[in-house]
Sequence to fold (259 residues):
Amino acid sequence: MDLASIIGLSLSVIVVIWGMVMGGDVMAFVDPPSILIVLGGTLGAAMLANPIERTKNLPQILKHAFVSERIDMIGLIQTLVSFAEKARREGLLALEEDASQLDDEFMRKSIQLVVDGTDPELVKSILDTEIGLLEERHSSNKGYMDSIAELGPAFGMLGTLIGLIQMLGNLSDPDALGPGMAVALVTTFYGSVLANMFCIPMSKKLAQNSGREILCRELMVEGILSIQAGENPRIVEEKLKVFLPPKMRKLLDEGKDGE
Fold:
């Protein structure tokens, strides 16, 4: 579970609800027709703008925004360096058994391609294509959240216009104008909350999670190709350390010194 996502969402909800409570009657913000217009209309328009398969995956998309797999970049580099050392001592075929025990499917496939004697350029082409397709899938998932973020406020405004039209139809009753205006504005409130409290932050989190996963796979590709080329394990490690921020590079070096 991504603790930052949970804390951030909770804080946003608490602050907004606190503002509603402190401002007066909370029930003034509750209007079922407005909720129906914003949520139902936004979801319907998002379905119109995207393939049905992506809509079916919406629960999974939301899950990725709150549950992100922790990637141990330092451990990954150490694993690749150990593979480089073993390949230098025993040859590439010695990595086949290690590959079969890997949990990461992408890395397992990468090692197997090398063990099978696939041409380095073809290995790079296959792996780069897979990374590109992964990035495209992630971009599509992010795009779905962006669609909802764009459409939510628009349907909020649409609900407001509906409320204003209904209110103007009752101009003969001045006492109804104030409550009618309040109800009309509630839909804009719902649309803004949907976009700014949920969809836009989730879209940004999906982009960050995707960036980390793609960086991890690019690191794997660089390491696998270096192993296939028979490079010195120390050189392999230095090449892979480029993918780490300075703080993590220091932790990697400290881990080596402690051995």
